[in-house]
Design brief:
The protein has 147 residues and is mainly alpha-helical. Strands 1-2 form a two-stranded antiparallel ribbon.
Length: 147
Amino acid sequence: MAKQTTGIPPETGTEEWRVLSAQVAYTLWKAERRASGNTDPKADAEAWKIASTEYRALVRYVLRELEKGGIQLRNIGPEAAAKPKSEVWKTKTARAAWLFWMNARRKIFPASEYLEAEAWTHAAADQRILVRAVFDELAEAGIRIVA
């Protein structure tokens, strides 16, 4: 049974969800590494050992915020998932891209809402492409956005 914690959606307190969120974190982290030009598997393995705990916590925070907003990732079949490239899928992935970007940015560069909005206008397209590619990769592993 899931442990009830204030402010945390109950579905995110299960062991199944923790495993799912860890896979999301690793997939997103790998995609960000590839995008930055780092592709050496041995270096990636060492870097993940160092970054994994903190990175998984950041991703779990964002996934919980998405859950609160009605955007859920689950191990589900394609019939129960938002159809890839549909308007629903695009809207949900755009929201996820923004939340992942904003939380990572605030961790290293807190700024006013105006400056964040300005920075987002420059980063949005690339961030959406990255996150949508991650969601495509996750879908291949059975992790999809609930319709």
